[in-house]
Design a protein that fits this description.
With 118 residues, the protein is α+β, with helices and mostly antiparallel strands. The chain is 29% helix and 29% strand. The chain is built from three helices and six strands. Belongs to the YciI family.
């Protein structure tokens, strides 16, 4: 089976913070529907997580000279934030793409990438 990562790069944290429990549950239900559709096509979710707010993020990057610099908060040059991800395995990439279509009901964008193998 081929492994893929499903990324949610454009979710707006401010909208999530204002969402009611019912609105949040609707998003979770959409994600569960994705999992069901993926399984119907022979794939499976093997991992994943909802990520905490980017305000709790730390960034380590190359600084002047050789010393790394650690900063708080999301990377300043990034217009988007990563709110979560799934790891999935499937032999049916077309089936994965079809199942992933339901995710855009709740997420503005979904990025699907093959996990590199060594």
């Amino acid at each position: 089976m081929t492994d893929y990562v499903i990324l949610f790069p454009a979710d707006r944290e401010d909208e999530w913070d204002r969402a009611t429990e019912a609105e949040r549950q609707a998003i979770y239900d959409t994600d569960a529907e994705f999992g069901r559709l993926l399984e119907e096509r022979g794939g499976r979710i093997t991992g994943g997580a909802e990520l905490a707010s980017a305000t709790r993020a730390h960034v380590v990057r190359r600084g002047a000279g050789e010393q790394p610099v650690v900063t708080d908060g999301p990377y300043a040059e990034s217009a988007e934030q990563l709110s979560g991800f799934y790891l999935v395995s499937t032999d049916d990439e077309d089936g994965l793409l079809e199942a992933a279509r339901v995710l855009v009901r709740s997420h503005p964008a979904v990025e699907i990438r093959v996990v590199a193998t060594s």
